[in-house]
Fold this sequence. Notes:
2 copies of one chain form a homodimer.
Chain A: E1 2-3, H1 6-14, E2 22-30, H2 39-49, E3 59-64, E4 67-72, E5 82-86, H3 93-105, E6 115-121, E7 128-135, H4 141-150, H5 171-176, H6 180-192, H7 202-215, E8 240-248, H8 249-259, H9 263-281, E9 291-297, E10 309-315, H10 323-342, H11 346-357, H12 359-365, E11 377-382, E12 390-391, E13 394-402, E14 411-418, E15 421-429, H13 437-459
Parallel strand pairs in A: 5-6, 9-11, 11-14
Antiparallel strand pairs in A: 1-4, 2-7, 2-13, 3-4, 6-7, 8-15, 9-10, 12-13, 14-15
Amino acid sequence: MKRLTALDMGFILLERRNQPLHVAYLNLLRPPANAPPDFAKTLVARLRSYASPLPPFNQRLEHRLGKGFWVEDPEFDIEQHVIHLALPRPGTMQQLLSMVSRMHASHLDRAYPLWRTYIVEGLEGGLIATYSKVHHAVADGVAGTRLTLRSMSTNPTDILPPPWAVPPQGRRERSGGLLATPVEGVVKLASRFGGAFEHVPSVFNELRQSRRERLEGNLDYVAGNGAPASILNQPISASRRYLARSYPLARIKAASRTLGCTANDIMLAMCSHALRRYLIDLGELPKQPLIAGVPMSTRRDRSDVGNQISFLLANLGTHLADPAERLRVIRASVEHSKRRFASMKPGAILGYAAVQMAPGLLSMLFAPKRGGLAFNLVVSNVPGPRSPLYWQGCAVEGMFPVSVLADGMALNITASSRADALDFGILACRRTLPRVDALMDYLGDGLEEIERLARLTIAIGKPVELAVAVDD
Amino acid sequence: MKRLTALDMGFILLERRNQPLHVAYLNLLRPPANAPPDFAKTLVARLRSYASPLPPFNQRLEHRLGKGFWVEDPEFDIEQHVIHLALPRPGTMQQLLSMVSRMHASHLDRAYPLWRTYIVEGLEGGLIATYSKVHHAVADGVAGTRLTLRSMSTNPTDILPPPWAVPPQGRRERSGGLLATPVEGVVKLASRFGGAFEHVPSVFNELRQSRRERLEGNLDYVAGNGAPASILNQPISASRRYLARSYPLARIKAASRTLGCTANDIMLAMCSHALRRYLIDLGELPKQPLIAGVPMSTRRDRSDVGNQISFLLANLGTHLADPAERLRVIRASVEHSKRRFASMKPGAILGYAAVQMAPGLLSMLFAPKRGGLAFNLVVSNVPGPRSPLYWQGCAVEGMFPVSVLADGMALNITASSRADALDFGILACRRTLPRVDALMDYLGDGLEEIERLARLTIAIGKPVELAVAVDD
């Protein structure tokens, strides 16, 4: 029995009918060439044979004297957690995405451990999909990714235990549970909330600073501009639309090399192009640029990821028609943000944890009270595996993150890198954002636009003017 | 725009995370012999072509100044309401029931009109299933049945519009909407709640009377005994188990004729046997008999069903091992209840409406405050079609009601008659009631037990002693 941290309890208490607070992955899997027709059925049976999960997957929420505790479920029932589904023929990607949209909209039952994995057969081309959700109070996207990756292998014939049966690994995890470090960090953070604002960590100070600068008329064009009102920032329904598509990492990296910016800048530029076109289609493009809240790794080595990640406010330059201008604005705002955060040390881990673990919480804390928008949407880029991976003997052909929406933030764009691909997942409120399917197409158009810019750079033999007057 | 009645608003306000308040039907359909392989797909496309539904199916809930209104949805989107699913192979009934259990546990999105129909392909033997849910605030089981039946035909080649496109029929429906009469009745009822108890209608007086008799030591053995504490009366989870099976109406009718009781008595005896065995298995059989709340038609002709139906408290005699004794107790308690209600006139319509429309509401109003149980579960027997019917060219081979659970009432048994079958639907809290699948088998055993009793009656040439000292 373990008392819920303040943050975890927050995720329980902040959950709403129209705002479920679970995160998920949609994975696409290619069964081995010699797979029998009942491969999916056998897979489900094998997964269900791991019927005694390890913490936190065997724990459910109990309330005692008004406090929340994680308590081992004495009647753990694997059939509640591993579900076998099928798509109707022909089993298109669109049918799968509709199914995932519905699944992501439905709440986990709090009487059970707060996770569920669906295995979906019947996709065109013989693929299998898994949709795995876990409540934000149990694990965050990062921990989820870590667990998922540890159940995968670079060896096609390696069949490792599924995430809920992966034994703890490493000292930190053993010492305090899988999620100890970030959770502890955020607990400290959360425990300070409601107290003096002087004590909140740098990531929140940054947001507060941005707002103050705006209020005082110090319109720092790069990051302190504040976010305009937009169609994205409205009350949300309980229904979702989920879109997923992979783009080749090689294209993105090539463009970033040519243009002298990061892959993350390119990703933001793709989002910017897509959002601009989408909002123009709807006649809803704000005159001011959209601001994205971007959790970003700033680590320089491969050591622990827990303490060199921060949260940036990126000006997406959606008010600018010229793609070179837009990329320049994005890059400048990101650089500006990075400089501000460069020296972040003890606060950084809190920022990392708060943001990477809790995009939903963050969005809610800074949710649009009329006129007080810090950012319009969360755009996230999660580092994933660098080699091709296999899961249960299947080649992993997609690892699409399915994130969280908060009331007042009707759109989330999260990408996850995987070997040679960047897997985009777009989550939108089904009701608030009409014809959102176009956004995914426009991401691709955005990449093409960037590539034209890169070709132009090569053709004229010098970089298109992207430099900004920054001093590092 | 129409203001929600007090009752409808009640269903909105009383809905909880673990207590969704929608009702549903699971229908089994046999496609025509010459149906092409993509029959289900074509069916879904045809159903979606009815994309402009009539009220109430085109209305969604809006809140204005703290009040609820039904407002036409200007962006009605049929794809939100008609969903195409498939079962994984082999497509057993058990797989279908697991799927329905999950679907029934998930809430309707209040940003949209509160109904949804799923078409499920991939059942063994080429069957198709539909699972159609509607929020209790929009329609009750009776209205739902009526609408469903009006979209069906006795003619296999008749393709009628689906329920959401069936035009209003008849004066009453035209004058005040499909549900006008029962709703109006219950509004009067609801508007009296919280006021003087003298004014509540007879069905509630009856429940109150039963309780008073018990409290005053007047232990009227037939109906005033109060319900014992039981495993059925516990807090519920948000997860469900749904079971469905058909039993031949001919067997039930034959037994009832031989034994000189009604088909409803036989149905209750089946439930009694099943509950007794199930509770014995669990070591949870209460010493006192379980009491069922039974909505029951008392009409003597085929006129409007709206004013001769009442709510009975049936003593299920689960404490008795002897099936003849048990049937006698059931029959006696039902007769006792019927006599009490016989003269019910203006109140009856209210009782009918409150109960038939609102088993969930009733359960909640009389939910188990420790020691104050009026009944342990709702057992309902809904009259359905008397002839074989077809829907969208398919023979209807099952119309299984999927009812509502209220916190504190973890089990519901509802049966619906259909031509030559009685379709049982059992809805249980997945968490509270372990191994509940046995209940459905035990229903069949209960029928066999009754049939043995009937054979005994014939063999010994006179009725087994079922008479009770009642004066009618």
